[in-house]
């Protein structure tokens, strides 16, 4: 029995350390993302102003990401672009998460007709790639900030709505929910006191996993000219403009902004995946 106790203690210590590493990863990634947002907010237009005496400079200690054809510092432009893309992605992801919550709960609580209609709507949106629908919506609304935000919010909710619908249907069959109904509690009271608190972990994880896709799609649509204004220092605008100068050997104009965008997306995916492990201890102990 003693060896078994020691083994159990070692396993508990291992899993505790693993959860601590997961939490540390989330904290480090969150700090980096916060620094980018704060850095982009602190920078102003004067720090990416035109300076023709320093145009087309390669990366150096003075200009970490080099300068462009107008002498603008690419490091500052990249930080501002990432901050702007994260802000647009935040608004779009919040809107899409809200739509998923409303439709998911409605499908599971408002009867079979509402469930069939919303399930058909989910299947309809899932049958078409997000990017195609987003481009059509952004083009219809004339592009710009309004067009891209509405497009992002309307196109990224179906998968999360399906998860919420399944979760609500499971919760509403629980014994304590049935007791509340027998006690005469209204649907609204049951939804706010029993159902919604159980959905918070799924909403948080779904939001974090949706965020990187929203950012990438915003950058893609902006790259195509249907997103943010060309006057904005968005990553999509930077990458679109840099295509004209790659043949001239100015590789840094696209390399560093594109690499930073992929790193930011990967960080959000890491935070979302690690949050899922922290919230679900059973899954965390599977490996």
Write the layout of secondary structure elements.
Blueprint (H helix, E strand, L loop, with lengths): L1 H41 L31 H36 L2 H15 L3 H11 L3 H12 L2 H14 L3 H8 L4 H37 L11 H8 L9 H28 L1 H4 L3
Helix pairs in contact: 1-2, 1-10, 2-3, 2-5, 2-6, 2-8, 2-10, 3-6, 4-5, 6-8, 8-9, 8-10, 9-10
Can you characterise this structure?
This protein has 287 residues and is mostly helical. The protein is built from eleven helices and no strands. The protein has helices spanning 2-42, 74-109, 112-126, 130-140, 144-155, 158-171, 175-182, 187-223, 235-242, 252-279, 281-284. The model has no long low-confidence stretch (mean pLDDT 82).
Major sheet, described briefly? none
Number of helices: 11
Low-confidence stretches: none
Give helix and strand order, one letter per element, not per position. Answer: HHHHHHHHHHH
Arithmetic mean of pLDDT: 82
- Rg estimate, integer Å: 23 Å
Sheet-strand content, in percent, reads: under 5%
Q: Which class best fits the helix and strand makeup? A: mainly alpha
Estimate percent helicity: over 70%
Distance between the termini: 25 Å
What is the 3D form?
elongated
Q: How many strands appear in the DSSP assignment?
A: 0
Short characterization:
With about 290 residues, this protein is mostly helical.
């Amino acid at each position: 029995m003693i060896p078994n106790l020691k083994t159990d203690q070692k396993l508990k210590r291992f899993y505790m350390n693993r959860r601590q590493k997961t939490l540390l990863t989330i904290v480090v990634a969150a700090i980096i993302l916060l620094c980018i947002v704060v850095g982009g907010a602190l920078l102003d237009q004067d720090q990416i102003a035109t300076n023709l005496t320093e145009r087309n400079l390669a990366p150096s200690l003075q200009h970490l990401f080099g300068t462009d054809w107008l002498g603008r510092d690419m490091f500052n432009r990249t930080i501002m672009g990432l901050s702007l893309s994260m802000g647009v992605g935040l608004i779009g992801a919040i809107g899409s998460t809200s739509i998923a919550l409303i439709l998911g709960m409605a499908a599971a609580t408002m009867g079979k007709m509402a469930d069939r209609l919303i399930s058909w709507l989910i299947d309809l949106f899932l049958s078409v790639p997000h990017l195609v629908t987003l481009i059509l919506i952004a083009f219809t609304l004339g592009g710009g900030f309004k067009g891209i935000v509405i497009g992002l919010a309307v196109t990224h909710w179906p998968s999360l709505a399906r998860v919420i619908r399944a979760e609500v249907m499971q919760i509403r069959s629980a014994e304590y929910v049935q007791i509340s109904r027998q006690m005469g509690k209204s649907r609204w009271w049951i939804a706010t006191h029993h159902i919604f608190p159980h959905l918070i972990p799924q909403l948080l994880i779904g939001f974090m996993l949706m965020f990187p896709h929203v950012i990438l799609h915003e950058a893609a649509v902006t790259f195509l000219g249907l997103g943010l204004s060309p006057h904005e220092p968005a990553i999509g605008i930077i990458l679109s403009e840099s295509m004209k100068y790659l043949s001239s050997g100015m590789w840094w104009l696209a390399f560093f902004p594109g690499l930073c965008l992929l790193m930011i997306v990967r960080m959000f995916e890491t935070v979302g995946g690690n949050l899922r492990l922290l919230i679900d201890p059973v899954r965390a102990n599977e490996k």
